[in-house]
């Protein structure tokens, strides 16, 4: 170290601002070579990666956005379907209710008409039975009247007392007959 | 001031240590970035990530921020090469045994500043034609009677002083740092060799100072690479947009 300083001191005259031409040449050539390598290889390689990376990131973002849009579309569709299904269910329920009411009304009407029919039939039957009873009574009454008349006529209708007895007997017979029929 | 050459040994104008280091720097930079860029993947590994950080720093923080616009990509290779060429050659000064920043020899600084000087003038002429020299020396909006004063100042500051300061800033900081570390080293050696125990003890102070200076130098080495590249970007931007300045 001391020797270096001494040798520098003895050289003395060297001006540090005066360049060594050979050193300048080496720096010039070295820098030119470096520039060549940088321009030719290093910058293109890095720029390529940067561009690819930017593209990858942007592509990824686009893809994510697309997926998001698809998902929200699907959600929208499901919501729509759900609403539709609800409306459908409501409609069916309403229909069923209406149908049930209809059936009930039909049944009621049918029952009413049936009962009316049965009542009418009963009326008709009763009427016809009454008619039959009237007819048979009428003939019976006729017979009875004839019998009574015969009896009355058959007896000597010479005194009132006797005819009254006949009538009383007839009536008693009639009562007995009635009582026998009632038993 | 210059060390003797290593090949042939001891000859002043031979192949010097500085030349070897310059060539080595080209090999180091090219190897590192070619390795880092070789297997390019979208998700980078450690080496590729380091390479991309370094490249992205020059590309975005210097070229894009200063020059901007669409045409900054054209100048990225120059700025990138300048930054790492100067950085590696400066950092040599902080590495023990090598301990020689290449630009403590003024030749290299002249060459790089010269390349930048030619480049930005060429860009200015290409962009604005010969009118560029008028744009660069006659500021707009200045009263006519001041122009005789302003124009010479602009010519001197832009076209004469600028390349000189550009190169000497780099050279001087490197030489000064190199000298300080060398002087501190020699001083430590000298003081330790003293018989007097108190004088020997003072070497501890010098060691502490030398370490501090060493750290400062390391900082300045990186900083000067950045400053040189940043100024280059500013000069190019000025030449590109001379009409709006």
Q: How is this structure best described in words?
A:
The complex is a heterodimer of chains A (183) and B (245). Chain A contains three helices and no strands. Chain A is mainly alpha-helical and 183 residues long. The longest helix of chain A is centred in the middle third of the chain and has 134 residues. The radius of gyration of chain A is 69 Å and the shape is rod-shaped. About 4% of the residues of chain A have low confidence. Chain B is mainly α and 245 residues long. In chain B, helix 1 crosses helix 3 and helix 2 packs across helix 7. Chains A and B meet through helix 1 and helix 2 of A and helix 1, helix 2, helix 3, helix 4 and helix 6 of B.
What key phrases describe this protein's structure?
heterodimer, A: 183 residues, mainly alpha, B: 73% helix
Short account of what is shown:
By secondary structure, chain A is mainly α.
């Amino acid at each position: 170290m001391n020797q270096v300083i001494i040798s520098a001191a003895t050289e003395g005259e060297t001006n540090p601002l005066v360049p060594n031409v050979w050193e300048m040449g080496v720096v010039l050539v070295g820098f030119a070579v470096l520039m060549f390598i940088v321009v030719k290889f290093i910058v293109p390689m890095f720029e390529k990666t940067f561009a690819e990376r930017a593209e990858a990131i942007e592509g990824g973002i686009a893809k994510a956005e697309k997926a998001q849009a698809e998902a929200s579309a699907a959600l929208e569709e499901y919501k729509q379907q759900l609403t539709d299904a609800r409306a459908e269910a409501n409609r069916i329920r309403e229909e069923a209710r209406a149908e049930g009411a209809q059936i009930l009304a039909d049944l009621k009407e049918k029952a009413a008409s049936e009962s009316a029919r049965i009542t009418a039939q009963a009326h008709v039957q009763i009427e016809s039975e009454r008619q039959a009873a009237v007819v048979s009574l009428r003939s019976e009454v006729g017979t009875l009247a004839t019998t009574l008349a015969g009896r009355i006529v058959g007896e000597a209708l010479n005194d009132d007392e006797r005819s009254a007895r006949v009538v009383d007997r007839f009536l008693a017979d009639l009562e007995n007959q009635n009582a026998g029929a009632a038993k | 001031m210059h060390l003797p050459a290593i090949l042939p040994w001891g000859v002043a104008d031979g192949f010097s240590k500085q030349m070897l280091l310059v060539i080595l720097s080209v090999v180091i930079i090219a190897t590192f970035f070619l390795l880092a860029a070789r297997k390019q993947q979208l998700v980078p590994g450690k080496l590729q990530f380091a390479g991309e950080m370094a490249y992205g720093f020059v590309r975005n923080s210097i070229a894009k921020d200063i020059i901007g616009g669409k045409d900054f990509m054209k100048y990225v290779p120059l700025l990138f090469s300048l930054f790492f060429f100067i950085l590696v050659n400066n950092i040599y000064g902080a590495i023990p045994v090598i301990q020689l920043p290449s630009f403590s020899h003024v030749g290299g600084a002249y060459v790089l500043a010269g390349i930048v000087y030619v480049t930005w003038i060429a860009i200015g002429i290409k962009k604005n034609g010969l009118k560029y020299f008028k744009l660069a020396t006659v500021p707009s909006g200045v009263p006519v009677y001041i122009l005789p004063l302003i124009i010479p100042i602009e010519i001197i500051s832009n076209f004469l002083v600028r390349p000189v300061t550009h190169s000497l800033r780099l050279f001087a900081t490197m030489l000064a740092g190199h000298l300080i570390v060398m002087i501190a080293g020699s001083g430590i050696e000298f003081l330790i060799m003293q018989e007097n125990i108190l004088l020997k003890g003072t070497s501890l102070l010098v060691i502490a100072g030398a370490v501090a200076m060493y750290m400062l130098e390391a900082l300045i080495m990186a900083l000067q690479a950045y400053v040189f590249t940043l100024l280059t970007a500013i000069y190019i931007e000025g030449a590109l947009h001379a009409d709006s300045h």
